[in-house]
Backbone:
């Protein structure tokens, strides 16, 4: 039981690869037929980059936060978020591809437009510094998550306590770097789509969205693995705690959403309200679906004691949360990037499918390269006997 | 407070306490009460105590609080004393939310505290004699119901002979 390893069967690999290839083909066909325009295509690339990179970063955040708090209950689940962080190098390459669409996405890249507000931001918003920052963000994230993974592997092999103590150090380093860079990256990639608008809450809002999405994905992974017969030692108590986290941080996300919305609404300053005017006037349905799905469903779905303990039901709520936060990113990115051409059509669904299958492929492959449980972890005994 | 005769069994550690509770319940003894200085893990399950319904109280009163606060603000700002504040409409949902949230939390919290006090029968000027002075210090106590003290006492003494007890009286 301790040494069980996930067997990433060939038929599942093939299925995922076929879906990726098929998805790319259908996306190309959709582009050819409906001619959405380069802004919308690149906005899709940006949206999916952000979403799936966010899954990786939020997973590392989950681990880091628990390690810094010296929590024991999550130990039995450590390999799952560990595996999710292996997507970051792929996300790095995909984000660098934005270079080819940068004029379609960001209006501040246009040197012909002279605009006092954008002129003032030129020191930060210029193409060379933009890409230097991408390199800094991803290098830091990849190096730190790699350090955390290698440390876990070393602990599994040698059971030397120094690796256990290093976990907290690396977790702390990751948290500090992540806190700064996730804010800065959200300003760079999402907030600067409309360079005249800004919100000081934006970095926080994106961070919490990332964390909730990662929690939901980890929960779905638990459900999948249990269905395939693995993780028999992950009990209702562990599921309960994951559900508590999804519940609590969905409420926190709503709080951030509302804090950003209400202050802008009450201040009624034209330079701030432009963001919400676009979204409320042209995308009203999605605007309120976003709030409903990301608040009402996790709140009422996971409020009772029993609901939190059944992996089947929690997995359904997690799936809804995952879709809901994709919609949330859509609402952040599409109206600003694509404007009139924004929509949710075959292109969006296929590109998300391609990215999703790629993400799942990489995560499951990483999961299969080691035992599903971190042996020799001092907190493992506590985690296996955890009662919540 | 103790109406019937009770046998008192005291321990100095939670492990024999749990063992004794299980053994007594297996033998269909009626346990009136178990007293301990701190919450003992596993005791609720051993005594088959049902889960508390206080969270339900919290939810219901929280919902009442939300409706009251939102409704009150809506009435005040549309019917009773409409004021133009910052150019915002009279019935403006975002303005009502912070107070609604706070009142929800207030009602939920206060109602749960009140429910806990009522269910524990705690009220001002309450008096009761502790059965064992060290119950808040380092002793754990099981109170077993006994119509006939003598026979129950000897029965329990033999039942718990393998478990480390401090006193059975």
Residues:
């Amino acid at each position: 039981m301790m040494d069980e390893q996930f067997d990433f069967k060939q038929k599942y690999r093939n299925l995922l690869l076929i879906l990726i290839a098929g998805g790319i083909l259908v996306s190309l066909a959709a582009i050819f037929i409906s001619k959405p325009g380069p802004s919308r295509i690149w906005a899709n690339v940006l949206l999916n980059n952000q979403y799936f990179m966010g899954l990786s970063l939020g997973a590392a955040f989950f681990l880091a936060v628990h390690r810094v708090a010296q929590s024991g209950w999550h130990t039995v689940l450590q390999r799952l978020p560990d595996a999710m962080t292996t997507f970051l190098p792929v996300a790095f390459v995909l984000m660098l591809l934005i270079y080819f669409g940068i004029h379609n996405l960001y209006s501040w890249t246009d040197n012909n437009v002279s605009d006092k507000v954008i002129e003032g931001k030129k020191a930060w918003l210029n193409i060379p510094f933009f890409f230097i920052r991408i390199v800094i963000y991803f290098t830091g994230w990849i190096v730190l998550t790699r350090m955390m993974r290698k440390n876990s592997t070393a602990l599994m092999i040698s059971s030397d306590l120094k690796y256990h103590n290093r976990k907290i150090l690396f977790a702390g380093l990751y948290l500090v770097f992540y806190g700064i860079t996730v804010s800065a990256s959200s300003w760079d990639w999402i907030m600067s789509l409309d360079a005249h608008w800004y919100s000081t809450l934006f970095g926080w809002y994106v961070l919490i969205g990332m964390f909730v999405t990662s929690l939901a994905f980890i929960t779905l992974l638990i459900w999948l693995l249990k269905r395939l017969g693995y993780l028999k030692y992950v009990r209702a108590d562990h599921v309960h705690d994951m559900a508590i986290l999804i519940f609590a941080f969905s409420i926190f996300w709503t709080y951030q959403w509302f804090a950003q919305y209400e202050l802008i609404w009450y201040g009624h300053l034209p330079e701030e309200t432009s963001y919400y005017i676009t979204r409320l006037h042209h995308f009203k349905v999605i605007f309120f679906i976003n709030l409903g799905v990301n608040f009402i469903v996790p709140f009422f779905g996971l409020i009772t004691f029993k609901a939190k303990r059944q992996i089947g039901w929690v997995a359904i709520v997690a799936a809804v949360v995952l879709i809901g936060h994709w919609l949330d990113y859509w609402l952040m990115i599409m109206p600003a990037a694509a404007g009139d051409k924004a929509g949710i059509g075959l292109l969006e669904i296929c590109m998300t499918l391609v990215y999703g299958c790629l993400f799942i492929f990489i995560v499951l492959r990483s999961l299969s390269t080691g035992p599903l449980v971190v042996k020799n972890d001092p907190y493992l005994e506590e985690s296996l006997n955890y009662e919540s | 407070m103790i109406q019937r005769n009770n046998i008192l069994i005291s321990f100095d550690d939670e492990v024999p306490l749990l063992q004794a509770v299980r053994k007594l319940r297996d033998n269909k003894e009626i346990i009136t009460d178990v007293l301990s200085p701190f919450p003992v893990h596993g005791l609720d399950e051993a005594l088959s105590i049902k889960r508390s319904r206080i969270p339900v109280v919290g939810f219901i009163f929280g919902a009442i609080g939300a409706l009251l606060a939102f409704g009150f603000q809506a009435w005040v700002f549309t019917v009773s004393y409409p004021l133009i504040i910052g150019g915002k409409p009279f019935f403006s949902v975002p303005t009502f939310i912070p107070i609604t949230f706070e009142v929800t939390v207030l009602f939920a919290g206060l109602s749960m505290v009140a429910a806990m006090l009522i269910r524990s029968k705690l009220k001002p000027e309450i008096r009761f004699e502790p059965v064992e002075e060290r119950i808040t210090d380092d002793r754990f106590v099981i109170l077993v119901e006994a119509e006939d003290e003598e026979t129950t006492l000897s029965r329990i003494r033999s039942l718990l002979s393998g478990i480390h007890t401090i006193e059975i009286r």
